[in-house]
Amino acid sequence: MGNVLITGANRGIGLELVKQCLSRGDSVWASCRDIRKAEELYSVGDSFGNLSIFPLDVCDQQSVENAFSQMKSNGIKIDLLFNNAGVIDWNDFNSVTAESFGSVYQVNVTGAFLVIKYAKEILRTCEATKSRIINLSSRLGSIKLRGNTQLGGAIAYQCSKAALNMLTRQTAIDLSDQSISVISMSPGWVKTDMGGPDAKYEPNESVRLILHTLDNLKGDETGVFIGEDGIEIPW
Ligand SMILES: NC(=O)c1ccc[n+]([C@@H]2O[C@H](COP(=O)([O-])OP(=O)(O)OC[C@H]3O[C@@H](n4cnc5c(N)ncnc54)[C@H](OP(=O)(O)O)[C@@H]3O)[C@@H](O)[C@H]2O)c1
Question: Of 109, 138, 159, 200, which residue is most buried, by most CB within 10 angstroms?
Answer without folding.
Answer: 138
